[in-house]
C-alpha cells in the first residue's frame, strides 16, 4: 500500500480531478467520513479546538493537542490521506520544525501553515493581523528544511490570510515566494468573489491551489464541481461535521429540555459501534486465538 502522502501526491497529479475533503475533528466524525468513501480527509483546527477545549478558534490550541488528534485520525485508515491544520506552526522557526517533524512521524499527508501571528483567529473572522512576509517565509523555509531532514515526506500547503488587510497582489506574492521555497500547494484564504478565485488559480499556475468552502464565511460557497471548473485542485469543507453536529445536538437539547425525552431513532448501539470498527476489533481478537466475541455481541 502506498503511504498516505504518496497517495495524496498521486491524487494531485491528476489535473482533471479535484480532491474533496470533508472536515472532521474526532474519531466519530472521521469514521463517518471514511464510510462516505472520500479520497482524503481534512482535520479542522476550529473543530479540534471546539471538541478538545470547548473554545473558539483563536490560536489557543497547542501543537501537542493538534498533533495527537491528527495522529489518531490519520491512522484510522492509512489508505485515506489526512490534510491537517497546523495554524502558524505554534511558535518560531524551531516550533515549526518540530511541528512538521511530528506531523510526518504521525503519518499526516499534508498540512497548511499560515501568516497570522501566534495569537491567530479563524480565517473567516474579521480584522486578522498578519506577520511580515519575511517571518512568514521563514516559517515555510523551516517547514521545507524539516521535511528534508526528516527523511520522510509531507505535502506543504502555504496559506496566506493577507488578502483583506494587504490586498490581492501582496497576498499572491507571498504565495509565489512560498512556492519558490518548496511549498507544494497554495491557499489564499478568504477570496471574495468567483472572479478573484479564478484569477488566483491562474496567477499561481501550475501550482495546485486549495479552496476553503465555509458556509456563511468571507468567500462564495462553492460546490466541488464549481471549484474544479475554476481550476482548484483541493476543496476543504471544515464545517462538514462541526456545523451539522452543532445544529443536531442543539435541536436535541431543546427537545429533551422541553419534553423530557430525546428523539426515537431506528439505529442501535451496535450499529454505531459497527461504524466505529466493531467487526475489525472482533476479527483481531479471533485472529489472536481469543474467544472473547465468539458468541457475538
Automatic annotation (TrEMBL):
PROSITE patterns: ISOCITRATE_LYASE (PS00161)
InterPro entries: ICL/PEPM, Isocitrate_lyase_ph_CS, Pyrv/PenolPyrv_kinase-like_dom, Pyrv_kinase-like_dom_sf
CDD domains per the UniProt record, alphabetical: ICL_PEPM
A molecular function (GO) term: methylisocitrate lyase activity
Catalysis performed (reactions): (2S,3R)-3-hydroxybutane-1,2,3-tricarboxylate = pyruvate + succinate
Family, as annotated: Belongs to the isocitrate lyase/PEP mutase superfamily.
Name of the protein: Carboxyvinyl-carboxyphosphonate phosphorylmutase
Source species of the chain: Talaromyces atroroseus
